[in-house]
Amino acid sequence: MSGARELGDRSGSGMNVPLVSNGEGAHADQEDASWPENSAGGGAALETTAGIWSRITFGWLSPLIAEGYRRELRRASPSEPLLGGDELPAALTEGDLCELRRDDLPQVLSATASRAWAEEVALPGQERSLRRALRKSFGGPFFAAAGFKFCYDTLQMVGPYILKEVLGYLGRCEEQQTSMVDKGDCNLGEGLFYVSLMSASALVQTALLHQYFQLCFRSGIRANAAAISLIYRKALRTSGPGKRSEGNGSSPASPANSPPASQHRSTGEIVNLMAVDSQRLQDTMTYLHTLWSGPYQIIITLIFLHYVVGWATAAGVVVMLLQIPFVTFVARRIKLAQRALMGIKDERIKLTHEVFGSIRLLKMYGWEDSFEKRLDDIRERELTQLRKYQILNIVSGAVWATAPIITGLATFAVYSALYGRLSPATAFTALSLLNVLRFPLTMFPNMVSSASEAQVALQRIQQFLEGPEVAGRLPPPGESGDSSLTTGPPRAKAVVLDQVQLEWPNGTPLLASTSFSVPAPLPGQKRAHLTVVMGTVGAGKSGLLQALIGDVSPVRGILSTSGRIAYSSQVAWTRNATVRDNIIFNSPFNEERYAEVLSACQLLPDLEAFPNGEFTEIGEKGVTLSGGQKQRVSLARAVYAGADLLLLDDPLSAVDAEVAKKLLKMLRSKLVCGSSIVLCTHHQGAVKHADQVILLQKPVVAEEGANGTVTQMAFCGPADEFVRRFPHLSAPDAGVGLTRQPSTDEVAPEASPKSAAEKGRLVQNEEEFVGSVTGDVYMAYVRAAGGPGLAVAVILGVFLAQALQTGADAWISVWSDHSKPDTDKLYVSSSEGLIVYTCLSFFAFAGVFCTSGLFRISALKAARSFQRMLLQHMLRLPMSFYDTTPLGRVLNRFSKDIYTIDEQLQSSLYSYLQVVIRVFATIIVIAVATPWFLAVIVPLLFVYKQTQSYYIPSSRQLKRIESNLRSPVFSHFSETLDGVSLIRAFGQQPQFLAESTDRVRRNMRAYYLNVSSNRWLAIRLETIGTLIVASAGTLAVLGRSTLSAGTAGLSISYALSVTQALNWVVRMAADRENNIVSVERVREYLRLPLEPPHRLPATDPPVASWPLEGRVELQEVQLRYRPELPLVLTGLSLTIEPREKLGICGRTGAGKSSVLNVLLRMVEPEAGRVLIDGVDIATLGLHCLRRSITIIPQDPVLFSGTLKFNLDPLAECADGDLWQALRRSHLAAHVATLAGSAPDGPASEAACLVAVVEEHGKNFSLGQRQQMCLARALLRSNRILLLDEATSAVDMQTDSLIQGTIRKEFSEHTVLCIAHRISTIMESDRVCVLEGGKLAEIGSPQELMRQEGSRFKTLAMLDASS
What we know:
Blueprint: H1 46-49, H2 52-57, H3 62-76, H4 106-122, H5 130-155, H6 158-179, H7 188-235, H8 267-287, H9 290-309, H10 313-357, H11 359-365, H12 368-419, H13 424-465, E1 493-503, E2 509-519, E3 529-535, H14 541-548, E4 554-561, E5 565-568, H15 579-584, H16 591-600, H17 604-609, H18 627-640, E6 645-649, H19 657-666, E7 676-680, E8 692-697, E9 712-717, H20 719-725, H21 775-785, H22 788-817, H23 830-874, H24 879-883, H25 887-929, H26 933-978, H27 980-985, H28 989-1038, H29 1045-1086, E10 1112-1119, E11 1129-1136, E12 1141-1146, H30 1152-1159, E13 1167-1172, E14 1175-1176, H31 1182-1186, E15 1189-1192, E16 1201-1202, H32 1203-1207, H33 1215-1224, H34 1228-1234, H35 1245-1249, E17 1252-1253, H36 1262-1276, E18 1280-1284, H37 1292-1305, E19 1310-1314, H38 1318-1322, E20 1326-1331, E21 1334-1339, H39 1341-1346, H40 1351-1361
Helix pairs in contact: 3-26, 4-5, 4-7, 5-7, 5-9, 6-7, 6-13, 6-29, 7-8, 7-28, 8-10, 8-13, 8-26, 9-13, 10-12, 10-13, 10-25, 12-13, 12-23, 13-29, 21-23, 22-23, 22-25, 22-29, 23-25, 23-29, 25-26, 25-29, 26-28, 26-29, 28-29, 33-36
Subcellular location: Vacuole membrane
Domain ABC transmembrane type-1: 143-453, 792-1074
Keywords: ATP-binding, Membrane, Nucleotide-binding, Repeat, Transmembrane, Transmembrane helix, Transport, Vacuole
C-alpha cells in the first residue's frame, strides 16, 4: 500500500509558514532593520495554536485553501457579489499569509546556525564540519521524524499480511464452494474483520507518514534558511566577489601569485551558492531518512517474504546483492557528474550576471552577439554534462526498477521448483511485498545520488565559509568587534600609520613603508581637519582608504583608526531605494541635519526635478542618476552619518566646477566640524583647503616598463609647503580646472505614477499571474520539446508499458487460479507461468526505459530552447526595461526558473503522465474483477475531481507568490555584494543581515504554506481513498462464492494502490502546475516588445565604408525616455561638420547625454530625424549604427576573462594591433605587470594579452579602466567618436596624455565631447550650450568667451574660479 505515496513534494525552492490575513507586501523595500515576531500583520502562527486533531489533519490550513478557492470562483464569475461587499484580489496574495512559528523565524535560525558554525571553527585539532553544525542546530525535529518513519515502515507489513489472510479466507471459500461441503471456514464476519483491519491500518499509516513529512520539510527549510544566512554573513566579511586588488593596477595573474580559490568567487558564483546549493540541502533533507529507512524496509520485507515463500527468498536476496557493486559504481559517477555540472552552472550564472549588469555598455558597442555566443558555448557544455548526469540517473533508476521484477522472477522460479503449486494467497502476498520493495529499491539509489549532491553542495558552501576574510579594523570605543590590528590608536589620533607596508591580498605590493597620522576631532573645534591624498592613476589612493576601513591588512607596521567611519567609494554605490533612504542609510532620521546635508551637497535642485523629490526611487545601481548625482548622494550619505572619520574617495571627479567649489567649502564648514577627513582626489583646487597633503607616487619607469613598482609616499606635510615643492600639482592655470562642466546624464527619471501613492516609484512589483496555467504554456513546452508527434509517441509508450505491466499482474492471477493439474480448469505449469510472466515483465520494463529516455532527451531539447530564446530575447530588449527591472529578477529567470525547466519540470510531467495512465489501468482491472466497484468509484472520482479543483488554486498561487518573493532575495544579495566594503565601513552589517533575513522570511512563508497544503491534500485524499480499499475488500468478501481467489487478489492488490495513484494524480497535477509556472515566467519575458532590429540587410551600408565623412545632423529632434515622462529634447537642431571637434555643455538636465543616446538609438526619438552622412539612422539596423560609432563612456566596464577579450570581444583585430592600442592608451606598462613580467625585461605581447581581468575589472583602478575604454576606441577607429566624461577619474598628467592621444589619433574624426574639463572644451572647434533640451548657443570657444552675456563664458568663469 505504500510506494508512491511516500514521495512527498519534489517541487519548491524557498522556505517556511501558517496563514491568515495581514497587511504586508505593499512596500517590499521599506522593512525595518529589526522587526518583531509578528511584523507580517499581527496574525499568530496558527500551527502553534492549533489543537492536536488540527495538527494531525492539517486542519489549520483549511481557511486558506477555502479562501483560495473562493477567489478562484470570483475570478471565474466576476458578476457574483462579494461576501460582505469587500474588494478582494482575484487570487491569494502575500497579504493573506501569517507569521511563521517563532522557532522557524529566519533570524532565530540564523543565530543558531552561526553559533554552531562558530563552535566548529573554534574546535582545536579537529576538522570543521558544516554538516555537524547544521545537525547540532536543527537535528531535533529531523531525528524525531525518524520515529514516525520507523513506525510507518513497520506497519507497512500489516497490509500484505492481512491480504494473505483475506486471500486464504477466499481460497477456503472457493474450495468449499467447489466441494459443496460447508466446513464453517467461510464465515462472513471473519472476512469483514480482515477488511476492517486493512482499512484501519491504512488510516494509521497515513497519519504517521505525513507527520514524518512535515518534520522533514521543516528540517529542510531550516537548513536552507541557515545556509543562506551563513553565506550572507560570510559575504559581509569577505573582500567582495572576485576582489583581490581593486583600484590598483598591479595584480599579477601568474599562478604563483594566485590567492586561494575561495577568494576568486564571483558574484554569480556566490549567488549560485545561495540559489542552488542551499536549495539542494533542503531538497535532500526531505528524503534523507531513506538512507537507513530503505535498508530497513528491504530487510523486514525480505523477512516477511521468507515467511510467505520460504527459502525461495534467498534467490531474490542474491539478485539484489549482485546489483549493489554496479549501483555503487554508478552512484560515484553521478556524484562526479553533479560536481562538474555545478561548476559549469556557476560559470554560466557568473557571466550572465556580468552581461546583464553591464547591458548598457554591450548595447552601446553592439557586442550582444559576442556575449550571446560565449553564453551559448557555456550552456552547451552545461547541457552536455546534464545529459551525462541524467543518463547515469536513468541507468541507476533502471537497475533498481528492474530489481523487484528480477527478484520476483527468481523468487517464483525457486518457489515453484521447491514447493510446486503457486497459490493465489502466496502469489499476491509476494507481489504485494515486492511492490513494497519497489519504493526503497527505487528511492534508495536516488537518495544516494541526492545525498552525494548535498555533500557536494555542503563542501562548496563550507569552502566558501572557510575562505579568507578581511582583517577588519579596531572597533569604536565601548563596542566589541573583530579586529586584527596591533594596538589601538592614541585618543588624539583618528588615523595612525607607523612604518606600515601594504600589499594586496594576492601579495602584490601596494604601498612601501609609510608613516603619517590624522588628528582625531576635538570637542568644540570649528572645522574639520582635512587631509588630501593625491597621486597618479594606479598609485594606490583607493587602496590606502581600503586599508583604513580594514579591507586591506598591513604586512608590517601598525595601522589603526579610532571612532566611527563614514566612507564614500570612488565608484558610487547606491541602493534600489528612495533618495532619502540612500542618504539616511539606516541612521536615525534628523530632519534638520538632513535638510542641511541636502543643501550642502547641492542636491536640492536635483530633488526638485525628480517626480517625487526625496521619495523618488533610485533604480538598481543608480540607473536613474547621472554620475555626478550618484557621487553627491554617496557623499551626502557619508556626511549625514556624522562619523568621527570621513574617508572620501574622489567624490569631485563627476561634479561640475561650481558644485566642486561648494563641496570643498562644505568640507570646511561646521556641518562636518566633528569629523576628521581624508580626501583622495585629482582635484588640485582641494590643496588650498587642506591642513595636510599626502602625495603618492611610483618611481618613473620606461613605457615598456618592467615589473610593477611599489608606490611610495613622496610628500606628507602642510599644504603651503606642498604648494612650494609641487607648484604644478597645486596651482592650475586660470580656466583650466580639474573639474567638469555642469552636467547630468539624463538617464530617464523614474516612471510616472499610476497613482499619487506610487509617484516617483521606478521599479514596480513583479507581475503575479492568477488562475490556472493556460494550455498554450503547455503547448509551448511541447513544441520546444519536439512537437505534438513526439508527445503522442511518449504517451503511447507509457500506455503500452502500463498495459504490459497490468498484463503481467493479471497473468499471475490466471497462473495461480490454474496451477492445480487435478481440476477441470485449464492447467498452467510453473515453467509456462514463469515464461509468460518473464516476457510480459521484460517488455513492460523495456517500454518504461525507452519511453523515459525519449522523454528526458526531449525535455533537454526544451530546456535548451527556452534558455536560448530567453537569452536572445533579453539581449534585444530596450534599455527602458533594464532601467525599471532589478537585476535579481533577471537572474532569477536564468538561475532558478531555468534550473526548474532543466531538471524538475520533466520529472513532474512524466510522473503525472505515468500516474494518470496507472489510474485508468487500475480502475479497469478492478471493474472487470468486481463490476459493482463502478458504483463506488464513479462518485469517488467525482469527489477527487472536486478536491483537485478546490486545492489547486491555492497551491498554484502560493507557488507563484513564492517565485516572486524569491527575486527580492537575489536582488538584495547581489546589491550587498556590490557595496560590501561600504557596508562594513559604516558598520551596517547587522542592518543588512536583518533585511536579508526578512526577505528570506517572506519567501519562506509562501513556500512552507505550499508544502503544508500538500500534506492537507494527502491526508484527505488518502483518508477518502481508504474507502476504495474497504469497498474492494468488502465486495470481494460478499462475492466470495462467485469470485476466484486469484481474481480477488488482483482486485484487492490494485485497490491498495489506487488510493495512492489517485492521490498522486492530484498531487502531481499541482506539482506540474507549480513547475510549469517557470515556463510561464520565461514566456512572460519572451512577450516583451523588442528594440528595433540589429540588422537590416536591405538598408545597412557596409560598416567598412560608412560613414566616410562623419557629418551629423539633428533635425528638430524630440526625445522622451518613456511615454509618461516629459520631453528631455524639445526640438533640438544641430549640425556637426566632418572632422569637427564639438564640445557639449550645459547645466543639469539640459539634455547633453540625451544627444549621445539619440545618436546611438539607446532611446528612439519621438519626432525629428538624425542623419549621418545623409543617411537617416532610423532606417539602419542597430548594430550597423552602433558599430560605426565609437563611444568612451563615463562608467568604464571590464569583464572577467582575458585582456584580449576585453579589448576585442568580436575577435576582429590582430594581436599586434591590440598591443599598439595599449601603448597608445598608456597602459602597456601596467599590462606588463598583469602578465607577471620579470623585473629585468618586458613580458611578451602574447602573455600580456592573455592576462586575466577579474570580475568588473577589479584589478584595474577606475582611471585605468577608462584608459582601457580609450584602447577600445583606438581599435575601432570609427569616423565618429563620442566622449562622455571619458577622463573624469584620472589625474591631470594622465588626462593630458589621453587628450593628446585623442587629438593625435582622432584628428581626422568627428568628435562630440560632453564637457568634463575646461581644457577639452577650450580646444574644441566649436562649443554648443544646451538649455531646456534645445540649442542655446554655439560657436568657437574664443568667440563665445568674447561675447557679453554668453552662457559658455559664465560656465567657464565658474570653472576658473574653482
